[in-house]
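User: I'm writing a tutorial on reading structure tokens. Could you give me a worked example: one chain, its sequence, then its tokens, then a sentence or two explaining what the tokens reveal?
Assistant: Sure. Here is the example chain.
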Amino acid sequence: MRCAAILLSGAAMLATPLAAREVVDASPPVDLAVTIYRDPDRSADVALDADNPRGLAMISETRRVTLPKGESTIRFEGVAEGMIGVSAIVTGLPGGTIEKNRNAQILSPAALVDGTLGNRVTITRTNPATGERVSESAVVRTGANRGLVLQTSQGFEAVRCAGLPETLTFDRVPAGLSASPVFSVDTRSAEGGTHEVTLTYLAWGFDWQADYVATMTDKRSGGEFELGLMSWLSLVNDNGQSFDNARLQVIAGQLNLESDYESLADPPEARGLYLNCYPIGSTAAGSEVQDYLPVPPPPPPMAYAPAPAEMITVTGARMKAADMMESAPAVITAEEEDLGDLKLFRVPGRVDVSAKGMKQVAFLDKDAVKARYLYQAGCNPWSSVDQQDEEPLPASLLLVTKNEDRKGLGIAMPQGAMTVYEPRSGSVGRGPQFAARTTLRDYARGQDVELDLGASAQVFVRCGTLGEGEPGKAKGAWTPMRASLTNANPHPVTLRLQLGWAGRYDIRFPGAKVDVKNGYQTVEVIIPANGTRSIDWRLREATGG
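And here are its predicted structure tokens:
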């Protein structure tokens, strides 16, 4: 009998449900940090896609939470809809994390109906002829699956099938539903109490790019000149959540991604309520669906609304772009830090990273960068310079400097687009005039910066072999080469001539040092103002000895 009593007691204990965890809501963030990683698949010549950004952000939120004694569930409401749940970590909990969950859906018409199944709502019908509104209580008997059935005092009725305008009123929001995305963790606390915890996670739907404006202080000549260089960081947040008063960082460099973070983000679903009326008619005559109240299509997604074209936002202030080019404002620029092989730029102060919006903050402001123009052309050893039907080809124009303090730079420059302005010549008009637009890759400190401004309209080159010579035709034989250079500028210019791939050819170029640049053997030569120059050299296939 004693054993039987013990068994019955144990069975009763097993049948008793475990105490449910108390649900606790964390406070809104008391501190925020947002670090944005650029889309790794977007090259320098591809503009930032504000409608579909494909970069990442690491978001760190500090919140306060009051825990009961024992086990509880903490809800973090208002996380990014592009949150990658598997990346989330929570620190500061006295008992650690037992389980993590990402809510699959947020508050929506369909979720509201499904969460009220079996409970009462108020249905109000309006007589279109008299305008009279009649309300009554009803019980939701089906979920929101293309048809909604309510139980009223008249029996069971399908919503939107009475031929009258109908609205539903809910007394409360079902438990577990929120108007914004929610992330929750289960934890335990031996003592309870109030704690500051930090939720850190990756989120999809961010991106950034750098935009540069270079303004020459003097009209260019053949030598070195100074230019003002200003840069802005354009930040995009495609999530529906804002991150206000955040500490902001951006990461420059090529991020190596192995996972498909877009699919891992899996934003919560907000389902609309789309109801169809039951067919009316007879089985003999057939049934035609009566569309008494056509259901409007779902609203389009919130469109990205950029700031007006003539304005840019700078840490809360606004200024005209024309004023920016005329005289650079006094701005606080981002601070550079190393992050492994990447570069981190920390924006001073606090920044609002708005939902579905773009933000621009100052990144770089240099007023005396020393640069020069350099022309560049390649020489094909397989064509003959004696062929008169060959038209001279335009040389490429390069804007050249070095990323070092001595040249007025000395800061890592992330990839982006650059617009170049020159002073107006003569007395007509004032202010800068557009000269060129180009792109630049990531440049580290100490690197040579060479930006291609396109084909020149002033410098031309005709280049090739002399006579019938052809490299490699006779083993070890030298082939004579000639370049005919023309300069229509009123000042001398420097031209870099690419003589052939390094390692493929042996080159003898009298009176000049042959350097290797970007894989080519090159020399720099001067072409006189409004003049021509002809230069000769020899080359052969490399012998390896």
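What the tokens reveal: The CA atoms of residues 398 and 498 lie 14 Å apart. The first strand starts at residue 22 and ends at 25.
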